[in-house]
Description:
This protein has 290 residues and is an alpha/beta fold. 43% of the residues lie in helices and 14% in strands.
Amino acid sequence: MNSRREALKTIILGSAAVGIGSIDSAFAAIKPSVLPSKGKINHSVCRWTFGNVPLEELALACSEMGITAIDLLRPPEWRVVSKYGLECSMGTDKFAVIEHGFNDPQNHGKLQKDYKHLIDEASNHGVKKVICFSGNRRGLSDKLGIENCAAGLTPLLQHAAKRDVTLAMELLNSKVDHPDYQCDHTEWGVALAEKMGSSNFKLLYDIYHMQIMEGDIISTIRKYHPYINHYHTAGVPGRHEINDSQELNYLAIMRAIAGTGFDGFVAQEFIPTYENRFEALREAIRICDI
């Protein structure tokens, strides 16, 4: 359940089996209430955490909750959500694998080819950000990992700048969910961003992951916000709802994010446990809407 990769496989297999008629009938019983946004936070939700919900059903629910985007969609899905007035807030594709990223020079040729195509697709469809990963360490020092990532990313960032697309490298924990992942501390990601020196390379700051790895969330956001262009949420521990059953104060965190002048997206990435999963999402939006 905690595996993004397994969830994406479920989405791909399940989407082919569900017809529009059954989507409409299934959603008719839910009828989510409209939540007016207070305007300081741009709300999104990660697709994979609602992997067994048909995308059109999720998009319709989002459009009635004040959520304006869905995260981690592949190119064929971008047009689907646009029918509901939503955008893709972070693009991806099946070749983007957490464990095999830019810190391994053997991956550079294929990643550069695949990402160039994804950047072009994103630019053509108005998708402003695509996700990327460092990959696992496999014995690499932090310094060499940064050097390798920079070598692999530099040609892509030149192309991304021409197409007005930003690559966002996700900060993930290597303690619980992604053993051996290299971009597992904010300072490592910032060091890479400084080496790149490009506004087309930023960090995806995952609050859940960084609470596990280093804590001090609000101070870190305030200190390093110029390097961050996207946020993910989830409750710690467990990666479930962001209410008072877990240790993070998301209201205070959202105020800190807004206080930096951030105008990007905050995407919910918790795994719902409520019987009504949309009610869990609606609750998260209420908590984060400031």
